[in-house]
Amino acid sequence: MQRTPTPMDDVAEAWLETLLELHPERHVELGRPGREGEYTDHSPDGHAAMADAARLTLAAARRTDVVDETDRVTRAELERTIGLTLELHESGEWRRHLNVIACPAQGVRDVFDLMPTDTDDDWADVARRMRHVPEAIEGYVATLADGIDHDQTPAVRQVREVLAQTRRLSGDDSFFAALADRGPEPMAPELHAAAADAAAAYARLSTFLERDLAPRARTTDAVGREAYGLFSRAFVGVEVDLDETYAWGLDELARMVEQQERVAHQVLPGATVAEAVAHLDADPSRSLHGVEALQRWMQDTSDRAIAELSGSHFDIPGPMRRLECRIAPTQEGGMYYTAPSEDFSRPGRTWWSVPRGVTEFATWRELTTVFHEGVPGHHLQLGAALMQGGRLNAWRRISWNSGHGEGWALYAERLMADLGHLDDPADRLGMLDGQRQRAARVVVDIGVHLGLPHPDHGRPWTGDDVLPFMQQHMNQDEGFVRFEANRYLGWAGQAPSYKIGQRAWESLRDDWLAQHGTGQGEKDLRQFHADALAVGSVGLGTLRDTLLR
Q: Which residue intervals of 39-97 are DSSP H helices?
């Protein structure tokens, strides 16, 4: 149903245009033309400009009348997200924004994964953006140096790990050189010159991290309760009781361990979890050999899920039925999802960043991850919001909240188990393996950053406790577990948003069915999914208030 835009929609649309102006890379994410090759100003001046724009928009949202329920949600989310933007700015945490997974050190490179490369003009944009890498990195260095001046620096553990990443992005065999090699031959000189500039910028960043930042970085990993509370609200979209959540995380972890031990007996009678894992890893029928086989399996699994779920528990319109599964150009480990362009001309994509040297892949471990990243996980969730063009303004359609999004993806994994798609004990063991990891990181993330008592020895958590604890609860190779441990230490509050979000989604579903259900089972659940996803990615507090009003 087409809805007439309102003055509140105008405020939100203007805010999106402001974000596009201040963060030009978002044009690429949305598939919009304009500002090709440009970057966010990562310097202190850029952060100040963002804060100034946020204050103006927040004032505009507060003085604009609400005319319907959609406006009410829009204003609530504008006030929540922009208010958090200003709180984070005033805290100065942006001065030490450096971690192994989600900071400008990775983001400056990551945008190239989404840039089109079909025409010579596309490659000219790639060259232009590579030539702007030095400017983007220079601004980021200025911000980190400002953090040194204000005694607001990241943890030295993060500095050392990011240093290893930036070194891989510099030199003759860098990502940028490989990207230039893929370009059209007539443009080779231009592309390779731009690639050399980009790699040299990362070399200068490496020098700064090693010589200037590392000696001044803080030695403790914990961010403390005050900063953690702010980060948690930003990631989850509602204030949570951190001490209660820590205790719940311990209970949930114990529950996942018990369930996994029970399923391990189904895989191999009398086996421990470790023995069942070893048994499955040795089964050639559950292994893939080479990244080409991995990519084909991912695509076949995604296509099958879309076909089987469409029209039953979900409405999946035509544009959303196209999902591409790809091998990522990086080798950092893990899977991730990138949303379609606004017009769906670029489809949603699931990416697997295969670590260097890894050629064997266990399907029993990863089936649930394909559901998490694709359908009914992120692809369905983000695509459903993009399809609301007749109801929601563009800012609402492309907004993202981690508790909502990652919570939905974990909810989707459990739903697929409930619907029978993980009935094979091996696949169910893989799903529980992921759920166990997500519960464990609720414990370690909150525990270490708040200095709560460790469940094994009773002393306050330290950063050095995280890796051995996660090794107990993750059946992955050491390199991947180490990366995950460093991720939790450097990106406070993000990892628990998955399980906290899943908990909120499951509670909301049960309460919605009690309030609105008609006793028709599958039909009621399908309606809940449609109503909930149509709201868009909002904070968990806003979502619950909207669905149960």
A: 44-63, 69-91
Q: Which two tokens stand for residue 428?
A: 């169910």
Dump the DSSP string for 198-210: HHHHHHHHHHHII
pTM above 0.90, yes or no: yes
Phi/psi class of residue 92: alpha, beta or left (left: φ > 0; alpha: ψ in -120 to 50)?
Answer: left
Residues 255 and 207 in one domain: no
Q: Enumerate residues 6+ apart whose C-beta is below 8 A from 235.
A: 401, 402, 403, 493, 494, 496, 497
**Count of structural domains within the chain:** 2
Q: In this structure, is residue 41 part of a structural domain?
A: yes
* 354/460 same-domain check: yes
Q: Could you tell me the residue range of the domain that residue 455 belongs to? A: 235-548
Verify that 214 and 258 share a domain, yes or no: no
Q: What is the DSSP string of 145-161?
A: HHHHHTT---BHHHHHH
CA distance 194 to 177: 9
Backbone angles phi, psi at 5, to 5 degrees: -60, 150
My answer on whether 221 and 267 are in the same domain is no
C-alpha distances in Å from residue 401, one per residue of 81, 278, 542: 9, 37, 11
Question: One digit per residue, pLDDT tens: the chain, 549 residues?
Answer: 689 999 999 999 999 999 999 999 999 988 898 898 999 999 999 999 999 999 999 999 999 999 999 999 999 999 999 999 999 999 999 999 999 999 999 999 999 998 999 999 999 999 999 999 999 999 999 999 999 999 999 999 999 999 999 999 998 789 999 999 999 999 999 999 999 999 999 999 999 999 999 999 999 999 999 999 999 999 999 999 999 999 999 999 999 999 999 999 999 999 999 999 999 999 999 999 999 999 999 999 999 999 999 888 888 988 999 999 999 887 766 788 998 988 899 999 999 888 878 888 999 998 999 999 999 999 999 999 999 988 999 999 999 999 999 999 999 999 999 999 999 999 999 999 999 999 999 999 999 999 999 999 999 999 999 999 999 999 888 888 999 999 999 999 999 999 999 999 999 999 999 999 888 888 899 999 999 999 999 999 999 999 998
* Contact call for residues 355 and 479 (beta carbons, < 8 A): yes
